[in-house]
Write a structure and sequence with these properties.
Elements: E1 2-3, E2 16-17, H1 20-25, E3 33-35, E4 38-40, H2 47-64, E5 70-72, E6 78-81, E7 84-86, E8 90-93, E9 112-116, H3 121-138, E10 142-147, E11 152-159, E12 162-169, E13 172-174, E14 185-187, H4 192-195, H5 218-225
Parallel strand pairs: 9-10
Antiparallel strand pairs: 1-12, 2-4, 3-4, 3-7, 5-8, 6-7, 8-9, 10-11, 11-12, 13-14
Length: 228
């Protein structure tokens, strides 16, 4: 495993002064995250970004099974500190965790967070530097970074208050996914499904995920086999 030390780049722009409470009161579809007391812009997702997020949501829900754990999309708001609020692309609570509140801000860290990187340098810095620091301080155990332009998946594990890269791949199969027992990922270059939308990016994406397949835990398999 290796630690991640990305180069610094331009910081996130600050726009409107806003408290966490004011952020919570915004309409559900209002864009923006809170960074040091300011409402900041979010990246504008493109079709490939949304396709990958949709795949991953299905992946986690299939792995967890009905009624086990929780998988949330990008509109859920997390208070990661007194002056910072984030909206990850995907967040996952594992089955052994208590159920999160049904409404309002979430103050307890999920077990796993996923960010799909957008192509601009500012957005990449946000995911690789700013959000990585925020999620580590918040106590998120596993942080996934998906880069559609590279067709890469990186999985970081929180150790001693910082993230250590535990897995990384652009092709092949990832077994023994950290923090996800029983989950198997097939990752390959030049995905057929993503490739069908690549023209929308005008050739920006050189490779992407071909497939993300899931194997449930042995416990779930045994449970299914035992049903009459």
């Amino acid at each position: 495993m290796q630690s991640w030390s990305p180069a610094l780049a331009e910081p996130e722009p600050r726009t409107v002064p806003m408290s966490i409470e004011e952020w919570a009161a915004l309409p559900e579809d209002a864009p923006g995250e809170i960074v040091d007391g300011y409402l900041t812009e979010e990246e504008v997702p493109d079709p490939i970004h949304e396709l990958l997020v949709s795949w991953l949501v299905v992946l986690f829900r299939s792995w967890l099974g009905a009624g086990h754990g929780f998988v949330f999309g990008s509109e859920v708001k997390f208070v990661v500190s007194a002056t910072r609020g984030r909206k990850p692309d995907i967040s996952v609570y594992l089955p052994e965790r208590p159920a999160p509140p049904r409404r309002g801000l979430l103050h307890d860290p999920p077990d796993l967070v996923v960010e799909v990187i957008s192509p601009s340098p500012r957005d990449e810095r946000r995911d690789r530097v700013d959000k990585m620091d925020d999620y580590a301080a918040f106590g998120v155990s596993f942080y996934w970074l998906v880069d559609p332009a590279l067709g890469s998946l990186e999985i970081f594990e929180l150790q001693g208050g910082r993230y250590i890269r535990a897995r990384a791949a652009v092709e092949g199969t990832i077994e023994n996914v950290p923090g996800c027992p029983g989950l198997v990922l097939n990752v390959a270059q030049r995905g057929r499904a993503v490739g069908r939308t690549a023209s929308l990016e005008r050739g920006r994406s050189r490779s992407a995920f071909q497939a993300l397949t899931v194997a449930r835990t042995e416990r779930d398999s045994r449970s299914t086999a035992a049903r009459p």
